[in-house]
Amino acid sequence: MIGVRLYLAQRLSALIMAPLMLGHLAVIIYAVQGGLDAAEILSRTRGSLSFGLFYGLLAAAASLHGAIGLRVVVHEHLKLAGRPLDVFTLATGAILLGLGLRAVMAVLG
Fold this sequence. Notes:
- By secondary structure, this protein is mainly α.
- The N and C termini lie far apart (42 Å).
- It has helices at 2-33, 38-45, 49-78, 82-108.
- The longest helix is centred in the N-terminal third of the chain and has 32 residues, at 2-33.
């Protein structure tokens, strides 16, 4: 049963992540064509709650999606299963979420 829940969670995270990634790419293309570098982009977005929420949701969806995907790879190739696989998945998700939210905090300033 947990396999079905993880499958659905990964698909849901993909549904959330896809339009956010397209938005992220559109912002990057627009900014780069305008001649902005990363420091200038960050200075313009700093303190923006809307950018913070946008990228916070993207970080959460990506960390969930990535952790579940890595769980499948580790299970298939390393034959890890049961509680150790659950701990690996949770730790991976927490680390990815922490890294993503650290970047979001830079935007929120």
